[in-house]
Amino acid sequence: MGFSLALYRRAVHERDKANRQTAIASSINRFLSDDLLGRGNPFTSGKSSESLMDAIKQASPGIDRKFHDEPLVAARLQPNDRPSARQSY
């Protein structure tokens, strides 16, 4: 019975962890589609010539606000000024 309880607790923990990761992935997807790619749509942004770099510059201040509960996600989403040749994405 003790072994079953331990397995149950582990399964609950793993389920909660998976739900958290799913929520993080959904938040990142919404940020990318709405705040970055959505800005490239002239019907929503009102700007027909805005580049992706312009959209990134406009959206980057909102990263900390949108991901305040996930500081590691916010840090990874912060755009670098110039990625080095060694970095792979």
Task: Kindly list the characteristics that best describe this protein.
89 residues; 5 helices; 67% helix; disordered C terminus
Helix count equals: 5
- Let me know the largest β-sheet: none
Question: Order of helices and strands, N to C?
Answer: HHHHH
Mean pLDDT: 76
- What general outline do the C-alpha atoms trace? elongated
Q: Distance between termini?
A: 47 Å
Q: Which structural class should the secondary elements be placed in?
A: mainly alpha
The number of strands is 0
Strand content: under 5%
Low-confidence stretches: 81-89
Helicity range: 55-70%
Structure description:
The chain starts with a helix and ends in a 12-residue tail after the last helix. The chain has a domain at 25-77. The radius of gyration is 19 Å and the shape is elongated. The longest helix is centred in the first third of the chain and has 35 residues, at 2-36. The protein contains five helices and no strands. The protein has 89 residues and is mainly alpha-helical. Mean pLDDT is 76; it is low at 81-89. It has helices spanning 2-36, 42-45, 52-59, 61-66, 71-77. 67% of the residues lie in helices and 0% in strands.
